[in-house]
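Hi P.,

Sorry for the delay on this. The queue was packed all week, but I finally got your sequence through. Input first:
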Amino acid sequence: MTFLEIANDLVAGCREGRERANLDRLYAPDAVSVEPMDMGSGRETVGLAAIHGKHNWWEGAFITHGLTVEGPFIHGKESFAVIFGMDTENRATGERSQGREVAIYHVKDGRIVREEFYFSA
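Then the structure:
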């Protein structure tokens, strides 16, 4: 796949609920996912299996009531950004919140090798 196909496929997959399938299709086996803060298991998650585990944790901890996806915003030929808007509910506390985050994706050799998330304050 080309860089632009990867960027567009990732965004389409997020809009259409194909995030899990996109992990296997678009990410390198040794991809790294970086959060802005430690959410209990460190900031960095390394490897596709561990990133799947991170998605399992998210789905177990939160209900997503709404999601908006803007982008991709292209930066050269190796990185792109996506802006996510989320309406979520914490399953344990019932607390509902809305927020936005920016994700930066880095592509090398036809695969996403790194994703970095930035939350709004």
